[in-house]
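Dear colleague,

As promised, here are the two records you asked about, laid out in our usual form so they can be pasted straight into your sheet.

NAME FIELD: protein one
SEQUENCE, THEN STRUCTURE:
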Amino acid sequence: MQIQYKPRRGWLATIFQIEILQGMALTLKRLFSRPITRQYPDERPQIRLGFRGQHALVRDPATNDCKCIGCMRCAVVCPSRCIRIQSRKGKEPNSRRVIDNYRIEALRCIYCGFCAEVCPVNAIVLTEFYEYSSLDRASLHFTKEQLLANWDQFAAQLDMPADAYVNPFWRPRGFAERDLPAPKRLPVSPEWSGEQQVVGRQWQRYLPPEHA
């Protein structure tokens, strides 16, 4: 990355305040141009894959329940501490944990997507659905049942089977496929996978031989 600094201002530019004149010229130019404001809801934006919208818990078609295994990674990594999980051990030996409650306080969420990135089984997702305003706070404190209902509502609007949907945040950037758990080795565009955008202390492992 190359950093280019602004050239030093001369005494003429200091006297005549060139920056202010440039700003006024830009203001006058935009004053007589066509407005670019989108007339929502008559004109709806095109929502791209990976937009961070309404929270949902992905429903497992085999069990008809959420895919969550109670590892608590999403609650630990959440910077706003808006995720609360209550789980218990299953009755059968070697069975996964049973999720009694999974709560997300959407009003505190900053929509960073960390929860979806760290989930090893892709159980949590920020869907591309964004029209879910409310007149009361309680309806934006999502419970497990509400989060599953959010997924059902989102899946019904997809133009593909729900099990074929892949959210880009399920495939973290900056990691080679060999370093990801099996459920996160998902087919995404090369731009999103970003295997060349290696981060962390192990970056030297990915250098070409001539630079190692």
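NAME FIELD: protein two
SEQUENCE, THEN STRUCTURE:
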Amino acid sequence: MIKKEISELKRLFTPSNCAISRICGCYVDGEKDKKTRIKEAFLSLPEEDMFKYFEIFRKCLSGSFGKNLLNLDFPLDSEKEGGTQEFLLQLRNSQLKDDELLNTFYDRIIETYEYTGNYLILVIHGIYDIPGKTSDGLDMDDASEEVYNHILCCICPVELSKPGLSYHELDNTFGNRVRDWVVGMPDLGFLFPAFNDRSTDLHSTLYYSKNANDLHDVFIDQMLGCPLPLAAGIQKESFQAIIAETLGADCDYETVKAIHENLAEMVEESKDAPEPLVLDKYQVKSLLADSGVEEEQLQEFDKHFDEAAGEKAEIYAANIVNPRSFEVKTADVIIKVSPDRADLVETREIDGRPCLVIAIDGGVEVNGIMVKPGNHPETERE
């Protein structure tokens, strides 16, 4: 799925466009006991409640691709009888009307979702009559092409509201605030089937994780049965390890700066593309070659890539480079430079010591005070 497809689905979470037929839920306590269940026709809910649910559903389709949002593909085995995809397909086709299926669904989540505390499992069923598109991208409301039959699951933490003082209107006094259990924004969720190319894709699901560095691997592996993706932080660490291992002792400032500049340029060029920039093994190797890495250094690249990330790994460029930041760090000093002026920093050997040299272009400010650049008076006398 891409941004436009997600935006199209998020527009359904309004009273005028609502395509949700049914909402079900299960409240689970810290002991993993099911405390209560809900099952209602969504449009029968009070409007105030609907808006609160819409906020949760929209959040479950928000974030950055490769970080919070991940397109996951089901392996073929999961689509056989008894497989994870086949079970989700049964649940969707039941339109959440089969209590036995729903109860099994809740049990599977409780078994695979690792969380300490209370939480609410929400699942909705929706039927979206996909409008056709004109050649210039305008909706054709009277020319439906397909019906998108789907479910969306959100798992939300439920926590006690914070203690404090509150105003009691009846007796015109201030007193202890009554604490109650509040449903928070989703910790994770998934949309099934995926809405790829504005059409139903039974072989994929869109997965959401609030924490980009904790994707809940057990849940993905056992509940969804999909291959585990690399978390955003792991992608960055893997890329750094690939560079360090490939360059070895020849990993110098200028080469790393060139890699950063070329990668930032690639991200900038792709910023208006419908899909985020993703690099596979061969694209990373090409990036290094274009950045001045010698052919003999690249001879062991495939091995280093496979060990650090995995042979078929794909790395989202936005996870490994920030085009608006360039940072140089030593044990005691951190230097942040505008990426387009990274040339102001260079490495030199001065009096036998390796040094970072920063060219002064304009004034110098120390703790908010403008100072005169140049030698210290005592140094000049010497």
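A couple of things worth noting about protein two: The CA atoms of residues 77 and 368 lie 63 Å apart. The mean pLDDT is 88.

Best,
R.
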